[in-house]
Amino acid sequence: MTRHSRPTAIVVAAVLVLVALAAAGCSKSGAASADVIARVNGVDILKTTIDKQIAQMKLQSPKTFESTQGVQIEQQYRAQLLDNLIRQELVDEAAKKLGVDVTTKQVDDYMAGLQQQYGSQAALDTAMKTAGIDLATLREQIKNSLLTDAVSSKVASGSPTPTAAQIKAYYDANKSQFGTPAQVHAEHILLATKDKALAQTVLAKVAAGGNFAALAKQYSTDPGTKDNGGDLGWAAPSAYVTEFAGAVESMKVGDVKLVQSQFGWHIVKLLGRRAATQQTLQEATAAVTQTLQQNAKANAFATYLADLRKKATIEIFDKKLEALINAVTASSKTTTP
Length: 337
Fold this sequence. Notes:
Layout: H1 8-21, E1 26-28, E2 36-40, E3 43-46, H2 47-60, H3 62-66, H4 70-98, H5 104-118, H6 121-131, H7 135-155, H8 164-173, E4 179-180, E5 183-191, H9 196-207, H10 212-219, E6 231-235, H11 242-250, E7 256-261, E8 264-274, E9 277-278, H12 281-311, E10 314-316, H13 319-332
Antiparallel strand pairs: 1-3, 2-3, 2-10, 4-9, 5-6, 5-8, 7-8
Helix pairs in contact: 1-6, 2-4, 4-7, 4-13, 5-7, 7-12, 8-12
């Protein structure tokens, strides 16, 4: 791959992995057990729930846990997972008191959106299988997520509309969010570092008027673009590795150039340029207003959760995890959500 960022499909698959990490793992309190790692208002959270999730994470990213800091990293993940489960139990209890619920149709609609994002049910099934998530787990976490959103909306309703001064202050402090940097539209054919001679041969074919897309499909080793004729779409030069970025910044539209990077030899053709753009305050007002309202909602919900936590009876039986959770909670109090 040429760009620093990963393809959307991989990013979405990563989201699916994260979805599984907060799956429900609570049960009504019974006799004390070595498997009970925490208790929230009399509801047990089981250690086996976290063990299963950690095991899945190790399958997905074994090197993370094999490093010299692997044990510490695992403890941090365990604390995060436990904290998520405690938080979800508090949200579930709050939802019952507030009369908030999530219907099967809402979950079905969300699933339909995921299917559309992947392009087909088969593609979604493949991503779920790769991430080690079954349908029941995914649906349960979607329900938890929607329930959290519903509770958040309920407790944060009536937030004041941001003033013109607040909108301007946010815009002035975050202008880069409302601008688009200069972009280039390029296509490339990637060959291995050892294949310089072949790269020069293909370059000559392009220069002689050969069909770039056909040559990319025939010769390129970039799996992300070869079937698309080497088309990289529109992107800021900074999205690419240094050598590639330098080339497209200096090239004229229509130029073809051979460039070497850590990935190998790139036959690059520049198809177009776009100048940088910047939205005015007036153009950005709607987006800024939405952002400030979302921030206000998040702050109100964070305050609400903190109050629930303060009033709840929470017992954590693993003192090391409790210390990690308390450290994170204390740190979050000094930062803005």
